[in-house]
Amino acid sequence: MPQNAVRRPSDRPYFAGKCLRPVFCRPYSAGGRAAKVWEYTIDTAADDTDYALEVEGSDGDMHDITINSGAGATKTSIRNQLINAINQEADVAGRVVAASSASDKFTVTGRDKGDDFLATESDANLSLSNTVAADDGDSIRFGVGVMHDDAEPLAVENPTRTSTAAVAKVLDITPDPVNDARYLLAISLDEDGDGIPEADYNFEFLADASATADEIVDGLVADINAAMAASTILAANSASKLRLTSEVAGVEFDANLTSDNATVAAQVKAVVTANVNAAVALDNNFAGVACRSQFVEADANGISQYGPGDTLEVLKEGEVVVLLDAGVDPTPGSNAVHLRCVASGSEVIGAFRDSADGTDTVPVSNCYWTSGATTSPDGENVARLYLGAGARA
Hints:
This protein has about 400 residues and is mainly β. The chain has helices spanning about 75-90, 90-95, 215-225, and strands spanning about 20-30, 35-40, 50-55, 60-70, 95-100, 105-110, 120, 125-130, 140, 145-150, 155, 160-165, 170-175, 180-190, 200-205, 235-240, 240-245, 250-260, 270-275, 280, 285-290, 305, 310-325, 340, 350-355, 360-365, 365-370, 375, 380-390. The strands form eight sheets. A five-stranded mixed barrel has the order 1-11-10-21-23. It has a four-stranded antiparallel beta sheet with strand order 5-6-2-8, covered by helices on one side. A hairpin with a 2-residue loop joins strand 5 and strand 6 (about 105-110).
């Protein structure tokens, strides 16, 4: 830069997570932690029989838990005896808690999240499965988007998402055959999913003097398939019913069959398969962007991030420098903002984009880009983003 030149704020090589115009920030802890859960199943109930298992205690030793079922044993009574025995063993109860999960099942859950304790069984009358793995929690990079941790109210975690696949709608209409009756079919198509039909199609069929349901259906099918554009609606005869199917999964439509003949009974219409729009959404509410901290040093790989359980500031409203996917260069002023929830290769969970990446990202609303991409002093692709009040994904 020439001597005495003034660097504009948008040209400054900021690090990811730098808060430029913070309006509202609040502290959270880095969450995502999970307690380990083992589940025992009582496979067989037998009278006067010993049931044995082992659980690792707070002293690090495996403790044998054995009960005798006694007379008149049931799976539930055995379950209750084993739960009581575990919870009354001092060294074991200090580390885990046992509780009923079904009439023939019970769980053993670590009291501390992330504690990878052991549980075993070698009893032919019992079986065991690890239903929840221990998780120490998330490491959170500077400048990434985070979501609330529903298991810990004052914690945030890396974003995850639920994806819903689109399903094609299938509709059946059963005509009431009446000789010489005129049948009128109206189809409305909502192609963009806004709830307002963009296209209406009308068809007419005149039955002959010996009307049958198949005759009416076949006549309508031929006209519909000849008139409807590709990737709209496909008609077929399904057991004397008019079957209409969306050729593009997730596209909503409706259809109604009427007649100008008063003797024709009201239409019988049934949704065989309901329409489902493709959707992707965060598993929990969007919390904001992880702010940079001068007290957190980069690791051996040069990555600056908070460790599990660390306290971090999250910007909820204001301008902040965010981490971008490689190659992404947003347009200043654009509100096309997307948050990465699934990563592979060199991609980073929580990084931002200016376009969707299939179902690996979710859109973030009520925010906009205030700069294009630049390279931070530590070589990351970053840009400035303004989060409005109530920004959500």
